Amino acid sequence: QKGSDGKYMVTLIEGDGIGPEISQSVKDIFTAADVPIKWESVDVTPRLIDGKTSIPQEAIDSVTRNSVALKGPLATPIGKGHVSLNLTLRRTFNLFANVRPCKSIAGYKTPYNNVDLSLIRENTEGEYSGIEHVVVDGVVQSIKLITRAASERVLRFAFQYAQDIGKPKVRAVHKATIMKMSDGLFLSIAREVSKDFPNVEFDAELLDNACLKIVSDPTPYNDKVLVMPNLYGDILSDMCAGLIGGLGLTPSGNIGDECSIFEAVHGSAPDIAGKGLANPTALLLSSIMMLQHMGVTQHADRIREAIFKTLAEGRTITGDLGGKAKTAEYAEAVIKNL
Ligand code: ATP
Ligand code: MG
After folding, report:
1. Which of 23, 49, 103, 131 is close enough to 143 for a disulfide, judged by CB 3.0 to 4.6 Å?
2. Where is the Isopropylmalate dehydrogenase-like domain (predicted)?
């Protein structure tokens, strides 16, 4: 919602590792482009209350109030009994769909030049339900939970999204030949939901086949929206990120009914943290997805063009892309190209 000053308040979670550095680039570029946004920075360092990981109430309140957040990578402290903080955030705000566009960047050479994939990953259940136990010594069981409610919600979102972005074809990616009940349910709900979207074509493909085909030639997938259960989406979207130049370039949006959190696909990159070497493009493109989601499209287009121009010029790019520029120098070059 716009404030009386005509600006939108957005929650900013800078995150760990390279998080503060790449967040600074986003802030600098937004200021230079005069984006009508005010950042509300919050800390989400987890607190362990009664053995349960929770995020600070102020952070929850801020995201709930603003309904939109940009988030840097979060490292999950190891061995303190915390579950993944990313997972905690998704559950706290019921962010049921993870949208991952994967688009070639003109001027940055990769084996394929025309990749324009759209993946939607179920974000709340499946293999990530965290239900695991020892049956007897040496035998463990992990439960993949698939529910009608969560499947229908993400599938409806996928069909609507396909319509909205002008790619009126949805393909469910599954393994229902093996997981007959769980993926079978996901698939049959997909067929049901497709009936409510007569203008959107629907089909389905086995995950293994999809992987083989996409790495052999991704272009036949450009006109479709791929939707799938949680773990398949995790793996397939990293694979697709590899097709366009890696983790420094891929954005994502976690979408819920009440709020949405946009974030880079990559982690906190502790190996290069604090050195000014990180590529802020993935977080920047996430912030552009966020602006589009909010309807602030003119600023989004302008920043995106400046990013693509800077990458295509290739003079001021970061080390992961084969350049020598520091994070701040790259941001400076983007600002010049605005
Ligand atoms: P985490 O535990 O937070 O996921 P990680 O050790 O898995 O951290 P990632 O962040 O997933 O590290 O990164 C994997 C590799 O990719 C690292 O070598 C990292 O330096 C590199 N990398 C990731 N993001 C970026 C980025 N934005 N710019 C440059 N290099 C990056
Ligand atoms: Mg990682």
Report:
1. 131
2. 9-334
